[in-house]
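Review form for a predicted model. The reviewer records the input and the model, then writes brief findings.
Reviewer: anonymous (R2)
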Amino acid sequence: MDFTYDRLYAAVDLSRIKKNLDNIKKTLAEGTGIIAVLKADAYGHGARVVANYISDEIEMAGVAGVSEALELRKEMSGGRLYSPRFTKPILVLGYTHPSMFEDAIRNDVTLTVFDVENAVLLNEAAKKAGVVCGVHIAVDTGMHRIGFRPSEESIPAIKTISELENVRILGIFSHFARADEKAGVSETEKQERLFTEFCDKLEKAGIGIGARHISNSAAIMTGRSGYPLVRAGIVLYGNYPSGELDRDLLKLEPSLSVRARIVNVAVLKRGESVSYGHTFTAEKDMRIATLAAGYADGIFRSLSNKGLVVVAGVRCRIIGRICMDQMMVDVTEVPGCKAGDEALIFGEMDGAVLPIEEVAETAGSFNYELMCEIGRRMARIYFVDDKPVETVNYI
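Model under review:
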């Protein structure tokens, strides 16, 4: 398959995602189900294609809101992997406003609840639709975002939810705040203890709580995965939750690379300046290349005058301010480059590697954010065994 693209594209290696998933499974007890976290368009990788490619290997998908779930549930035109409707269970991991209940119920989306009032409204909506809506209970063991406190006072509230006629509790979960830090072991152990003890109390009170899950990517890596379900997020895509974890615990291969076209190569004379504000001035004659990539595509403006890209295997410095749609780099040491060639923004290309962690650190960010900021005007081109199999253009 040949592929075409406009300005730049994200190359997504589906074979690596599958390999990462296989390696994750090797760390888990037999029978453990995996919730593939596909929020933020699968961390920039493209949720529909990723979901359909690994559908047979996972228990369910986890998303941030109902809108993300609805995108997965639709039939689309566009490609073998992109087009099909995702049919496995989908769990919304965050809050759902009552205005979205009808859509969630109609599309068989499991919701998270953490207060009685919202659960009662959901029950009414489900009753009106003549169905039973599945929910997971969120428990706040220390993250302090959402969830019932793991206290005696919360038990009657959860019992009330469990007795609603058109709501069924299918699971219960919490989230670790510091599982990716060496200094966070004691707090992680405390959260796990609070979660386990609270779940046990609920069951003792006669409340059916379904499958427990608290293990995120970092917890999977460190062996805190003794639950019916685990949530595989960034590790699914081949990246590590932090630099503090021992990478020998789980072998991963990054699945995402961003590549942009060179659209112009020119000579910058000594004393001439580049881009908005003229923040870079040449101290000698040099060759510069303009890339069709900018901050509207998710290339952080903070990389201006300090970030790197790779051209023909050579690391080249970004010079001047990154613009909305374009950026300039010093290609003095790459005499053969020309308009139409590709430059690597991060990831891998033709044997060259520019790790996303390195780029994110230079930008004053971290790998999660850089992935999630990738814009939708960037094509996603999917590869299996190094061969392009599908192209998705959002616009």
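Findings: The chain has two domains: 14-238, 256-392.
Further findings: The domain at 256-392 is CATH 2.40.37.10 (Lyase, Ornithine Decarboxylase; Chain A, domain 1).
Recommendation: see findings above.
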